[in-house]
Design brief:
Blueprint lengths: L8 E4 L4 H12 L5 E6 L13 H15 L3 E5 L1 H17 L6 H17 L6 E3 L5 E4 L5 E4 L9 H4 L4 H6 E2 L7 H10 L21 H9 L4 E5 L5 E5 L20 E7 L4 E6 L7 E12 L21 E7 L7 E7 L5 E10 L6 E5 L5 E9 L1
Parallel strand pairs: 1-2, 1-4, 2-3, 4-7, 8-11
Antiparallel strand pairs: 5-6, 6-17, 8-9, 10-11, 12-15, 12-17, 13-14, 13-16, 14-15, 16-17
Helix pairs in contact: 1-7, 3-4
Length: about 375
């Protein structure tokens, strides 16, 4: 963990085991952080949405009391809905596959929070499974956790460089099993609490029910790409994502979603347990966002034998939250997009997903951008 003595530290406490142990490790290092609970959640005027805010707060208060630290609640509900939820609905409406957690980190936890109170602190600490390190030039890098299953660098790859320099991840060097062990040793209330699943603002509501509330239904044809046969009707393209296999409801399956034609409102599918049409080894990334340096202009990463007109880099990447990295070559196009050629075909490459790009050693994260086919 980076040197924090003499720094003013704010720790974001969610009530879960990860952020609770992050606080415990800060205290163990002699740091006395101010604790903050960011309140977001379902719409206030809805009664059918349930969430765990009260339970989260109870757990957070227990951590604050145990270590005799101050805990304050900051209500960023309105900001979250204006920035993150609106982004989600807008992306879904366009047929894209959004990632609200990525935008929550950039816009809320290290964004609006910093604007409201975080600017008074030198460091913002969270319970993410990620690390930071400085190179010989004093630049801060986002680096992967040794626990590949829990690694969350993909959720942090849209941070602004200044946000990364201010970030601290106290548990980032630990596997989940050790985090649980520390929680038990410290007798933390969240020691045996299950990890949160799904999208944070939904609580326990079904994702499709939520999308239906805002976008309604728009039936259209479902067509087998290979035969051209109409299998039936979908209720709206926004209820489906590229690579989806479950929940399609058609006999004679399995069926994979391979394309969404927004203009003609057609859901294209392929038949089989692992159809070739569900895979792709070529796609584009738009508006690449670099965390520390643009690797195409950094001599440490560029290949001097590559023609200047078509610079290329050998990298590894992820297209979803997974422990698997895929070797790939990325090429910078004249229009600023990245052309991606992966070493092996990837299943379910969906427009709107974030492609997260790492060095060949899968250690340093260069940045990310939205996928386009």
């Amino acid at each position: 963990m980076r040197e924090l003595h003499g720094k003013k530290v704010a720790a974001l406490l969610s009530g879960g085991v990860d952020s609770s142990v992050a606080v415990a490790l800060l205290v163990e290092q002699g740091i006395q952080p101010d604790l903050w609970y960011i309140q977001i959640g379902p719409e206030r005027d809805t009664t059918d949405f349930t969430c765990t805010i009260e339970e989260d707060l109870e757990m957070a208060r227990a951590v604050a009391a145990k270590y005799r630290l101050s805990l304050q609640v900051i209500d960023l509900h309105k900001d979250y809905w204006e920035h993150v939820v609106d982004y989600t609905i807008s992306q879904v409406r366009q047929g894209l596959t959004p990632n609200p957690d990525v935008m929550c980190n950039r816009l809320i936890k290290f964004g609006v929070f910093n604007e409201r109170v975080g600017h008074d602190y030198d460091i913002i600490a969270t319970g993410h499974y990620a690390q930071t390190e400085e190179d010989e030039q004093g630049r801060t890098w986002l680096c992967t956790s040794p626990d590949p299953v829990k690694d969350q660098t993909d959720f942090l790859a849209q941070l602004q460089p200044w946000q990364l320099r201010k970030a601290c991840f106290p548990i980032g060097h630990l596997p989940k099993s050790e985090v649980r062990a520390i929680a038990e040793r410290e007798h933390l209330s969240a020691a045996h609490r299950k990890d949160s699943q799904g999208i944070c603002f939904l609580g326990k509501i079904d994702y499709n029910d939520y999308i239906r509330k805002y976008l309604g239904e728009q039936p259209g044809q479902v067509i087998d790409r290979e035969t051209g046969r109409v299998l039936g009707l979908h209720r709206g393209l926004w209820f489906h994502t590229i690579g989806q296999r479950k929940g399609l409801g058609f006999g004679g399956g399995p069926w994979y979603v391979i394309e969404k034609d927004m203009k003609r409102n057609i859901l294209w599918v392929a038949h089989g347990y692992d159809p070739i049409a569900a895979y792709s080894d070529q796609f584009h990334v738009v508006e690449p966002h670099w965390l520390t340096t643009d690797p195409f202009t950094d001599a440490a990463f560029t290949d001097p034998t590559t023609p200047a007109a078509t610079p290329q880099l050998s990298v590894t990447l992820k297209i979803r939250h997974t422990p698997d990295f895929c070797p790939a070559t990325i090429s910078l196009q004249p229009d600023g997009r990245l052309a991606i050629q992966t070493e092996r075909p990837l299943q379910g490459v969906a427009p709107g997903q974030f492609c997260v790009i790492y060095d060949p050693q899968r250690h340093r994260c260069f940045g990310s951008g939205e996928i386009r086919l």
